[in-house]
Each structure stands twice: as structure tokens, then as C-alpha cells.
Amino acid sequence: MNANVLVLEDDVLLGETLQDFLECCGYQAHVFDTGAKALEASYRTRFDVYLLDINLSDMSGLECLRLLREGGDTTPAMFITSAKDTPTLLKGYAVGADDYVKKPFELEELQCRIDALLLRSGFSRNPLFINETFCLDMRHKRLLKERKEVDLNPKDIELLTLLVQHRGKVVTKEMIIEHLWSASKEPSEGALRVYVNNLKKIFGKEAITNVRGLGYRFEA
């Protein structure tokens, strides 16, 4: 199942760019140029993420999200804005935003932020794109490099999935042990180091940081 994304953006060119990019990444993207159209669509369709511009012709993105939240809508929301002043950003969080990205932005950054919102909301994306080259086929538990399967054992895939889902954050050894070994099996520090090294061979030594005494962090 692919994530259903509502995009509220009145810049036609940017709206088309976002739609093309999101659909290329495997999302279902629906672009609207006014708050009224976006609100109407939200009543008819269940969306998994809202991407909202702030400055619009009929109402601000802030007002749009405020109305959604007052109606009980808890869909993760991110503002796409050129505003750089702290008060505007604080207003965004005050009306219920979960994140924001400032214009101009890299499309890959936007994708990572969307994936993070989906992860926190419990949505399971398939495939889960790691970068422009690699993606995880969550359904069949395999890693693809430019659509070709990479030879990894199941434990490598399980560890990679856990690290990618917490990209940029420390995944503790306790979390890894709980994820990779059942209660009836004895965890192995040596085996864990092998799995980590297997992933480093694919993504590079700098992709996975060993945080001494805590665990590992994926930064590819």
C-alpha cells in the first residue's frame, strides 16, 4: 500500500514538480491550489500525510490546518514554506503541524521527512526508499539496488530495516537484540558485528556509526 499524500500549493510549477517527484517515489499525490479545495478533498478521502504551503490565495495553510485539527483530523502535517521567522514557524506548530521544510529545499530531504512522519504515525511504506539507489521491499524482505536484489541474509535485512526506520537516531543494542533474536535464542555480539559489517560493505563504512556503549546509527 502506498501513502496517500495531499499537497496544498498554489505555485503551479512547484505543485507539478512535487506531484511528479512524489509519484516517482511511490506515493499517491493529490495537489490542490486553494485551502477550500484541500479541505473538501480531506472530507472525501483519507490521506496519510498533508504537505501544506502557508501563503495561499483564499486562506493560509495555518488556517487550513487549524480547521482540520478542530474537526478531529490527526493526519501528520508538514508545512512547506518560505517563511524564515520564528513566530510563523511557532504558529505552525501551535495549530498542529508535525514538521516543516523551508523553501528552497532538496526533494530528497522532503522524501526523508515524509517517511519519518509516516513511520511515527504507524504507516508501513512499501517500498521504503533509502536513497536514489537503494530501497527496501518491506513486503518481501529484500534490498533492491536500482531494482536488482542485493544478496543479504534475513538478519541483515532485519537489522537494516530497524536502522533505516530510525535513520539519524541511535538504535540501542537492546533494541537490536529484541528485534533480531527471540527470547528463546541467545543473542550474539559477534554475529551482530558481522551483520553490521555486511551492511557497511554495501553502504560504506561511514553509513553506520558505532556509538560506543549505546548502539548504532544509520546515516546513509
Mind explaining what this structure looks like?
Residues 4-118 form the Response regulatory domain. Residues 125-220 bind DNA. The chain has 220 residues and is α/β, with parallel strands linked by helices. It folds into 2 domains: 4-120, Response regulator (Rossmann fold, 3-Layer(aba) Sandwich); 128-218, Winged helix-like DNA-binding domain superfamily/Winged helix DNA-binding domain (Arc Repressor Mutant, subunit A), CATH 1.10.10. Helices cover 41% and strands 21% of the residues. The model has no long low-confidence stretch (mean pLDDT 89). The strands form 3 sheets. Strands 2-1-3-4-5 form a 5-stranded parallel sheet, with helices on both faces. The protein has a 4-stranded antiparallel sheet with strand order 6-7-8-9, with helices on one face. Strands 10-12-11 form a 3-stranded antiparallel sheet.
Strand-helix topology:
Blueprint: E1 4-8, H1 12-24, E2 28-32, H2 35-44, E3 49-53, H3 61-70, E4 77-81, H4 86-94, E5 99-102, H5 107-120, E6 128-129, E7 134-137, E8 142-145, E9 148-149, H6 154-165, E10 170-172, H7 173-180, H8 189-203, E11 208-211, E12 215-218
Parallel strand pairs: 1-2, 1-3, 3-4, 4-5
Antiparallel strand pairs: 6-7, 7-8, 8-9, 10-12, 11-12
SS-based structural class? Answer: alpha/beta
Separation of termini? 25 Å
- Report helical residue fraction: 40-55%
Largest sheet: 5 strands, parallel
Strand content: 15-25%
The topology string of helices and strands comes to EHEHEHEHEHEEEEHEHHEE
**CATH architectural grouping of the largest domain:** 3-Layer(aba) Sandwich
Poorly predicted spans:
none
- Tally of contiguous helical segments: 8
Q: Quick check: average pLDDT?
A: 89
Largest sheet, order of strands side by side?
Answer: 2-1-3-4-5
CATH-defined fold name of the largest domain: Rossmann fold
Under CATH at level 1, the class of the largest domain stands as Alpha Beta
Overall geometry comes to elongated
Number of strands: 12
Report the C-alpha radius of gyration, rounded.
20 Å
**What's the domain count?**
2
CATH homologous superfamily annotation of the largest domain: Response regulator
